[in-house]
Structure formats: C-alpha cells, structure tokens
Design brief:
By secondary structure, the chain is an all-alpha fold. The protein is built from four helices and no strands.
C-alpha cells in the first residue's frame, strides 16, 4: 500500500502547488481577496484549482478502496495517470481553456476505473 500512499501524497502536493499558483496569479492580476474575478489568468488558475478539488473528492477514496479490494499496484499506476492528467488539464486551462479536454480525459478515465473498481471490488468480496 506504500505506492498508494505516495500517489495520494503526490496528488495532495499537486493540489497545494496549484493553490500557490492561484495565489501568485491573484497578486500578479491585482485581484484583492475575497474577490474571485477581475483578471482572466487568475480566474483560470482559480477554476482549475477548484476543479482539481472536485476531482480529489472522488479520487482519494476511490484510490484507497480500489487498492484494498482490487490491486494496490494497479491503483497506484492509475493514480499516477490521474495526476499527469491534472497537470495537462491545469496547463491547458490556463493557456487556452477550450483545450483542457485532453487533460480532463487523461485524468477522468483512470478515475472512472478506480471508482468502478471501488464499487465492484467490495461487492465481489462481500458476496
């Protein structure tokens, strides 16, 4: 389960890094807290950060349930692909928002596998 713990920590670190990028964009764009609009680049970072949080809510428990009931190594591998997808997503969202779909799908496919496995794995174990 150590690889799963490492992947979880990497995903959380990634979230913190994107949060720091939001803060930097806030300062550069002159967006005073608590405002969340005013500078397009800040708004893109902010939305990418919020979207990442929305994904983490599904990702972390699905990863751990999948790892426990299906396969920790496969779960960790899927988790790494998810993280890579989030990197691609955030970069695309900031540079050119309509192009964010590729990064979204790179992250969404492993997330769906983890989520489906986190339902089927315990069901199979239970039955």
């Amino acid at each position: 389960m150590e690889p799963v713990a490492i992947v979880t920590a990497l995903a959380l670190i990634q979230y913190l890094v994107v949060g720091a990028l939001v803060g930097r964009a806030r300062v550069k764009g002159g967006v005073q807290a608590p405002a969340i609009s005013g500078d397009p680049i800040f708004e893109r970072y902010f939305r990418a950060h919020q979207n990442t949080l929305e994904q983490l809510i599904l990702f972390v428990p699905s990863l751990w349930i999948f790892a426990h009931y299906v396969s920790a190594p496969v779960g960790a591998g899927l988790g790494l692909v998810f993280i890579i997808g989030r990197v691609v997503f955030v970069r695309a969202y900031v540079m050119d928002p309509p192009t964010r779909g590729t990064g979204f799908m790179i992250g969404m496919v492993p997330l769906m596998v983890l989520l489906i496995g986190s339902v089927i794995g315990p069901l199979v174990a239970w039955l």
